[in-house]
Amino acid sequence: MNATLPRLKSVQLAVSAPPSKSYTHRALIIGALGSGTTTIIQPLYAQDTRITMNALRMLGTTITEKPDRIIVTGCNGTFSNPETTTLDLDNSGTSLRLLASLALLCKNPLILTGSPRMQERPIGPLAEALRHVGGSITYVKNAGYPPLEVSGYLKGGPVTVDGTLSSQFISSVLIAAPYAETEVEVTIPSPPASQSYLDITVDVMRRFGAQVSRDAYARFLVSNLKKYGGRTYVVEGDYSSSSYYFAIAAICGGRVTVKNLPSGSKQGDRRFLDALGKMGCEVTCSGDTVTVERIRDLTGITYDMSSSPDTVQTLCMVAAMAKTPTTITGISHLKYKESDRITGTAERLKSLGGNVQVENDRITIYPALLHGGIIDSDNDHRTAMSFAVLGFGIGGITIRDAECVSKSFPKFWDSLNEVMQ
Q1: Which residues contact 227 (CB under 8 A, 6 or more apart)?
Q2: Using an 8 Å Cβ cutoff, are 123 and 144 in contact?
Q3: Alpha carbons 211 and 189: distance in angstroms, whole number
Q4: Of 310, 340, 376, 414, which is the active-site residue?
Q5: CATH superfamily of 3-18+237-420
Q6: Fewest CB within a 10 Å sphere: which of 136, 184, 247, 305?
Q7: What is the SS3 assignment for 135?
Q8: pLDDT averaged over consecutive 10-residue blocks of the chain (421 residues)?
């Protein structure tokens, strides 16, 4: 499927934010680990979260899907897969990483694999950590990358986890930790990528009954005496997905209002709103509702997005429409996502007439006269959605393989129809 975007001006739009993918993943896994029944209200039904659900089912978890909820019967810390189980996680890095530690709570080994792109995404730091807490790791093809076989048991104790490539390596160990033989002390030697996702992980763990203490992002201590208990859990709205709506207001002018976004959220992608405020938009928050209105021409900024990785490309699109240069820093780990989002974003903007410079951990976007063109999504949902938003600003952009948005935001194209009416 291809999608072509027309140029729009002065958009007026009011929508509700889709549910958070990050919170849905974690609630599913923690609910499956716990005792009793968990009811997840307003979950995100998307390709990635279904991959997690199907994997948990293969481990023996009973999961019932309803239109507005998911019911999970917990395994109380022990998965009963009857034999060595292969989990094909396709292109869901979150699923593969968060489930890897669960292998140490399984009756039989797990083989974790995925798409060709997944097999290019590093897993070595997590595998090394699992070895130190009781795991046995065998790489099926290339050392440090999926597919890999994980077996053993979760003995716990002190462990160092390198999270510079992905905070999910740390989250994976933390989520399994309440079921270790002894308490787990996680030390993080260098500042991790996407720190805010550790806040999300700890938030969900605590809501399900885990006891977690921490020293900022340098050390976490998880008790093995406090397990997860089933509960009713409501998934909050997603700031990452909502960023595309807000960017439409910034790029096209007009006003966009999004409901179901809690003001006290742990989501790091909330910072995208701060960036828009500095670039020329007025941001108003009231309860769980956020309104963005462009009040002047967009001007460039220098901004650290290390804790807001999923909105970097969206901010690049806003920057491409600004009157002065924008430099976005803290982005080196984006080369390991569903695609190399740093190089890919720069090349695609240049194909539309953009002036872009990439240096290690930063990208600078200069003012340029942009034109339409064809954008190959490279099966990356965030590439497709961010360039669609830019399409509304300049017109004549066609997104190839547009259906890849089903990974995180299946209703994305339907919601844009409201913008175009």
Answers
A1: 34, 35, 76, 77, 178, 179, 209, 210
A2: yes
A3: 22
A4: 310
A5: Enolpyruvate transferase domain (3.65.10.10)
A6: 136
A7: strand
A8: 89 94 98 98 97 97 97 96 94 96 96 95 96 97 97 97 96 98 97 94 98 97 98 97 97 96 94 97 96 97 92 96 96 77 92 94 95 94 95 95 94 84 61
Q: What class does CATH assign to 21-234?
A: alpha beta
What token pair was written down for 331?
């982005």
Strands of the 302-304 sheet, one edge to the other: 302-304, 326-329, 362-366, 355-359
Query: What is the rounded CA–CA span in Å between residue 300 and residue 339?
Result: 26
Active site residue 310: yes
> What is the torsional sign of CA 319, 320, 324, 325?
positive
Strands 397-400 and 373-376, sheet pairing: parallel
For residue 307, give the DSSP letter: T
In the chain, CATH 3.65.10.10 covers 3-18+237-420, 21-234
Question: Hey, what are 124's tokens?
Answer: 């070595």
Q: Give the DSSP letter of residue 164.
A: S
Q: What is the DSSP letter of 404?
A: G
Secondary structure (3-state) at 343: helix
Q: Tell me the C-alpha distance between 179 and 407, whole Å.
A: 30
* Rounded Cα–Cα distance for residues 151 and 112 (Å): 11
